[in-house]
Amino acid sequence: MNISTRIADKLPLLSSRVPLLGVPKSGVVPLLQFNKRFRFGFPKKMAWSLDKCEVSVEDKFGLVRSATEAYSEEAIEALKAGKVIAVPTDTLYGFACDACSLEAVNRIYEIKGRKHTSPLAICVGDVSDIGRFAAMDHLPHGLLDSLLPGPVTVVLRRGESSILEKSLNPGLETIGVRVPDSNFIRVIAGGSGSALALTSANLSGQPSSVCIKDFENLWEHCAYVYDGGVLPSGRAGSTVVDLTKLGKYKILRPGSAMEETFLGLFTSLSYNLNKYTSFRGL
């Protein structure tokens, strides 16, 4: 089993694996003329507004806050202090902490009852931040912008310049990276000055959470729980795509945005290749 497949099997914020239907995992992709309206593969309706969230569940521990800008500084301070918080993304609720804090990362594993051999993804505030943590120089211009922000996890090599702690996912040369289409988590990720380690807010092996009530039994283990209401994407989690190899891609998990992800890859890669050249999937 290769490293990319290993990450896909264990990556957080994803549900059980399902087969790809109607989309080839490899083969020749026909040329598609670039059109600016396809540059971003995800419709605006998927964006999650800071002002849309309201606390709707009884707060037994005094930890629940609205996932709004008013509480973003509080969340950032908790992350900097090495705490674990629960946050909404554009797919599922997740536990988040400073990815460069070994103590905080270990705390997430304890809360979930998760084996340390199961790797965590990271979340950053903007596409431009990815280069601090993973290698992206080999990618065609605009490719990541065609996929992110959005419900997609891109698997990249860490690279020699990555500032990630070696203790995060030890032994793996790759890292799953997210830039969710969710304003609150992007604001706090950017404000933290680091990447966030991110995993689904549930006990390991249990169903993923689409509202904070789903993981109420775990609230007490968090510094804060940020309520963004019921998330609309279902429990499929993010789509995972391997972009570690130059000129190749591989869809590892369909997730909740398979069609949009394929369109983003299809469009960006076609635009960046010679018009007489085909692109071969991995």
From TrEMBL:
Q: Name one GO cellular component term.
A: plasma membrane
Return the InterPro entries for the record: DHBP_synth_RibB-like_a/b_dom (IPR017945), Sua5-like_dom (IPR006070), TC-AMP_synthase_SUA5 (IPR050156)
Name of one Pfam family that matches = Sua5_yciO_yrdC
Where does the YrdC-like domain start and stop, copy by copy? Answer: 69-257
The reaction(s) annotated as catalysed by this protein in its Swiss-Prot or TrEMBL entry are: L-threonine + hydrogencarbonate + ATP = L-threonylcarbamoyladenylate + diphosphate + H2O
Q: How does it sit in the membrane?
A: Peripheral membrane protein
Subunit text = Interacts with RSC1A1.
Q: What is this protein called?
A: Threonylcarbamoyl-AMP synthase
